[in-house]
Amino acid sequence: MTTTFEKKIEILREKFFLSSSQANVSDIAESFISLTVSFNSRITEDEVKQTIKRVKADKASDASDISNRALQASLAELISVLTSLFNACVTHKYHSKQFKKTQTIVLHKSKKSNYIDLKTYRLIALLNIMSKALKSIMIKRLSDIVETHHMLSNAQMRARCKQFVILTLDLLIDQVHTM
């Protein structure tokens, strides 16, 4: 049984912060699909407004201490600034370091009494609200492009309206990596 605070920290570190290694992709055959897709890269105020309004107001705030409720309440005053900020990110292909900051907390799962077993814990990452909004806009746009140009097979996108947007993005990334 682990009794020292330092040993508990070390156990949690080993469990949740594994060292990463490169995947072996040598067995993937090379292929190339030529497709030219054109789209308007300017993010509109309507896109930003719809995205911010869709976020649940009482979700936990991130490390920036900007709550979803405060952002939604001040949206009329901030809409042009947020739209300009997001467009600058897209134009300059830059994702702010502030957007990348997260706050991670460890929660003990309910109805689990064994505090030593690491499987009774769950990591929760509180992401930056601005990053979530920009990511949501870009994922929606990518999903629309993928559907419009039939870039994924019907088997992959069966019942698309019921699929998560993240699944669409994951499938698109897989397609890109196999090209």
Write a concise keyword list for the protein shown above.
179 residues, mainly alpha, two-stranded antiparallel ribbon
Could you describe the 3D structure shown?
46% of the residues lie in helices and 7% in strands. By secondary structure, the protein is mainly α. The protein has a domain at 1-15 and 38-128.
Shape: globular
Tell me the strand percentage band: 5-15%
The major β-sheet equals: 2 strands, antiparallel
CA-to-CA gap between the ends?
Answer: 50 Å
Annotation, overall tally of beta strands: 2
Query: How much helical structure, as a percent, in the residues?
Result: 40-55%
Low-confidence stretches: none
Structural category: mainly alpha
Strand order of the largest sheet: 1-2
Can you write the helix and strand succession as a string?
Answer: HHHHHEEHH
User: How many helical elements?
Assistant: 7
Mean pLDDT across every amino acid position: 76
C-alpha Rg (nearest Å): 21 Å
Structural topology:
Elements: H1 5-16, H2 45-54, H3 68-73, H4 75-91, H5 97-100, E1 103-108, E2 121-126, H6 129-148, H7 165-178
Antiparallel strand pairs: 1-2
In short:
With about 180 residues, this protein is mostly helical. The protein has helices at about 5-15, 45-55, 70-75, 75-90, 95-100, 130-150, 165-179; strands spanning about 105-110, 120-125. It has a two-stranded antiparallel ribbon.
